[in-house]
Amino acid sequence: MYKIIFYYLLLPTLVLLAPAAFAQKNYTISGTVRDAGTGETLIGATVKLQELRQNGAVTNSYGFFSLTAPDGDFTLVISYIGYETISQPIRLNKNSLVNILLTGGNTLKEVAINGNSRKNENITNPEMGVTRLDLKQLNNVPVIFGEKDVLKTIQLLPGVKSTGDGNTGFYVRGGGSDQNLILLDEAVVYNASHLFGFFSTFNSDAIKDVSLYKGGMPAQYGGRLSSVLDIKMLDGNDKQYTIQGGIGLIASRLKVEGPIVKNKGSFMISARRTYADLFLKLSPDSTTRNASLYFYDINAKVNYHLDDRNTIYLSGYFGKDVLGLKNSFETNWGNQTATLRLNHIFNSKLFLNTSVIYSDYNFVVQSFSTNNDFKVTSKIRDFNLKEDFEYFFSYKNTLHFGINVTHHLISPGDISTSQTSSINGQAIQSRNGIESSAYVSDEWHPTDKLTILYGLRVSSFSLIGPGKITTYAPDNTIISSADYASGKVVKSYLNPEPRISVSYTLNELNAIKASFNRNTQNIHLISNSTASSPTDLYVMSSNNIKPGIADQASVGFFKNSANSQYEFSAEVYYKWLQNQIDYKNGAQLIASQDVESQLVYGQGRAYGLEIFLKKKYGKFNGWIGYTLSKTENRFDAINNGNYFAARQDRTHDISVVGIYKITNRWTLSSTFVYGTGNAVTYPHGKYTIGGLTTYYYPDRNSDRMPPYSRLDLGATFEGKQHKKFHSSWTFGLYNAYNRKNPYTITFQNKENDPTRTEAVETSLFGRIPSVTYNFTY
Question: Is residue 116 assigned to a domain?
Answer without folding.
Answer: no
